[in-house]
Amino acid sequence: MANDGEKKMAAERSLEYVHDGQVVGLGTGSTAAYFIVRLGARVKQGMKVRGIPTSDRSRDLAMSLGIPLTSLDEVQQIDVTVDGADEFDPQLRLIKGGGGALLREKIVASASRQVVIVADSSKRVPVLGGFPVPVEVVPFAQALLVKRISELGARVVRRLDAAGAVYITDTGNQILDCHFGRIPDADSLAQRLSGMPGIVEHGLFIGLASVVLMATGGEVVEMRR
Known about the structure:
Layout: H1 2-14, E1 23-26, H2 30-44, E2 50-53, H3 56-64, E3 78-83, E4 87-88, E5 94-95, H4 102-110, E6 112-120, E7 133-137, H5 142-150, E8 155-158, E9 174-179, H6 186-194, E10 199-202, E11 204-205, E12 211-216, E13 219-224
Parallel strand pairs: 1-2, 1-3, 3-6, 6-12
Antiparallel strand pairs: 4-5, 5-11, 7-9, 7-10, 8-9, 12-13
Helix pairs in contact: 1-2
């Protein structure tokens, strides 16, 4: 419950980065959902924004709140994206994808002038790796990629859904949750994963976060790269 309160605090603070007339990337996950709800309240009060959601879940939530939506087909430059993270380190490198939306999240982040990460204090780590790195793969290559990623030292688990079936992303791919443990060189690992044919995207977000808003001890701390 404490973390839930921190998530709400960070989400509330992130609204300071959103201004009238902007195109706003809408992240995925529990903390991002709090932001979307608060943004919906601002829209109801008269704020004019257009959102680009990073998942079907975020799209459905935004639509239910009356937030006008657009797409990358119509707009190729996003003013600000607000999203969560599973972990972040002192250099604001992130692990994302616990909610299964890493591909669209990274595309939207890469098209954004500013990426604001909202997080509770449990997400801050000195070194990435306590959370497994999600890797989105095409089904044709999943067995091969389990082998190749395992050779990098990870324990690789194919993600399942709540019913025990293979988890399928909004874009029709599968996710491998890769337990590397402590990752001393996240930049190098990101490059190696990006170079493997069959990997659509991985959950190491390097050099994308502009600012992290971390709620802790009743206040929100702002951290920048």
